[in-house]
Structure formats: C-alpha cells, structure tokens
Design a protein that fits this description.
Blueprint lengths: L1 E6 L7 H17 L5 E6 L5 H7 L5 E5 L16 H6 L4 E4 L2 H7 L3 H13 L3 E6 L3 H5 L3 H12 L5 H4 L3 E4 L13 H19 L1 H6 L1 E5 L7 H6 L5 E4 L6 H13 L1
Parallel strand pairs: 1-2, 1-8, 2-3, 3-4, 4-5, 5-6, 6-7, 7-8
The protein binds 2-phosphoglycolic acid (PGA).
Length: about 250
C-alpha cells in the first residue's frame, strides 16, 4: 500500500481556515477512491487534536511535523512524543530539511527523536537529502549515507522496519525543480543497499522509501511510479485538498 504524506507546514492560521480545510478535505475524501493508499496529514501541532477528532477514516492518519527527544520536563516550547500520541496521532516527521536549516537540527538529534517516537508508537518519517552544493560536488551519496548511519545508530532491526524514509533533495523542496526518475531511483537503490548492509534484505524490504520535494499531480509518474517509490511526501500541494486528491487518485490507480 502506497503512503501519501501531506506536510501542511506552518499554515492554517486560524480556526476558520482550519475548518474550511476540513470541509474541503472531507468532501474530496468522500468523492475519491482511496482503497489502495494510506494518507497521512502532518499538521501544525496546535491543530493535532482537532484533526484527529474531525477526520475519522481508516484511510487517513494524522501526524506531527516534529517532536522533541525528551518525553517531558523543562523544555520550553517543545512538544513531546507522548503528547502527540495521546492526541491520537500515529506519525511524526523527523529531520525535515527546514528543521535542519532553520533550527540547526542534526542527524544525531534525529536519532534520539526516532527512538522516542518508536517508544511511543509513532511511526517516524525520517527525511534525508542533499543540498544543491553537495549534489554539485558529487557528495550526495556520502551525505545520505551519513544521515542514515547517524540516525539509525542503536536502532534494532525490529525498530528499523517500522521507519519510513523520505528522500527529499533540499534543492527540490519548495523550488519547483525535481530530479529525474533515474536520479530518484539511484538514491532509492543507495538507501536499500545501506539498509541491506545494516539489517539484511528482509528488513531493508520493509522500510518504505518516499520521494518528497515539489511533488505535483503531473509529476507522479516521474517522482513515484517510474522509480518505484513507496509513496510521496507533499508540501505545498497538500494545502488545497482538491490538488492533494489529484495526487491521491493517480497513485491509488497505479
Ligand atoms: P514542497 O515541500 O512539496 O512544497 O516542495 C515538500 C516538503 O517540504 O516536504
């Protein structure tokens, strides 16, 4: 079953805007066939509770966009995995490139976040990907190997098989520039090789690998179907349910 993750980022600025989103999302969901896909909406933390309460469908799960690595205590402004889980969410994005860029997050911190997510029964969606400079210098593979080995340190094979990876080249996020399907396939093969080395083939086969970065309905063949990805992570196009469901419908049919 393919996974389609919507990352709403820091949007839906009022309860009114959020409620309009619910209405439009629910209408699209009702009108669409979604039997072959799992949708995950990663919403601003402040809206987690309302989303888990208002969107009740087995095709749609809710997730956070980040969590802190400690479960509780004096960490002003942070949101913990037990809090997210207690609101009914099932997923959390971890290590998104915007967290790395604006908040200096590292793969070592992602490692702690992945562990606390799994402990609280949240599925981590761990984001990896190279910057434009790293790609131009031919360092993309090395960067991704490091992002994975640091984030998976001390993770058992049972735990690893539950983690979702999103390959999100930093130069593609928010830019409208996307890699070719061959470039995506190359990274998918690299990721699978890393996981075969770390955990063996049966576990490597269970780890889902998504593509993320400027995903749009007209690009689904290129970024998902042709390279054989397990799904997509969608940013801007998830903000308008009608556009998001164009993606859902295409993937559901394939
Ligand atoms: P985008 O964002 O689809 O708007 O490029 C993707 C992401 O940040 O996950």
């Amino acid at each position: 079953m393919k996974l389609i993750v919507g990352n709403l980022k820091m949007n839906l600025l009022s309860t009114a805007e959020r409620d309009r989103y619910f209405e439009s999302f629910k209408k699209e969901l009702k009108d669409s066939k979604v039997g072959n896909v799992q949708i995950v909406l990663c919403v601003p933390s402040i809206h987690l509770e309302s989303f888990t309460k208002k969107i009740k469908s087995k095709s749609v799960e809710i997730g956070s966009q980040n969590i802190f690595w400690e479960e509780k205590g004096s960490y002003t402004g942070e949101i913990s995995a037990p809090m997210v889980a207690s609101l009914g969410a099932q997923y959390s994005i971890i290590g998104h490139s915007e967290r790395r860029r604006y908040f200096g997050e590292t793969s070592a911190q992602a490692n702690m976040k992945i562990k606390v997510a799994l402990k609280n029964k949240l599925t981590p969606i761990y984001c990896v990907g190279e910057t434009k400079e790293e790609k131009e210098n031919g360092d993309a593979a090395q960067v991704i190997i490091q992002q994975i080995s640091e984030a998976f340190a001390g993770i058992s094979s049972t735990q690893a098989s539950k983690i979702v990876i999103a390959y999100e080249p930093v130069w593609s996020v928010g830019s409208d520039i996307v890699p070719s399907s061959d470039e995506i396939l190359e990274i998918k093969i690299l990721l699978k090789k890393i996981f075969v080395e770390l955990y063996g083939l049966p576990v490597a086969e269970k780890i889902s690998v998504l593509y993320g970065g400027s995903v749009k309905s007209e690009l689904i063949n290129q970024v998902c179907i042709e390279p054989g990805m397990d799904g997509v992570l969608v940013g801007r196009e998830s903000l308008v349910p009608r556009d998001f469901f164009k993606i859902v419908k295409i993937i559901n049919k394939n």
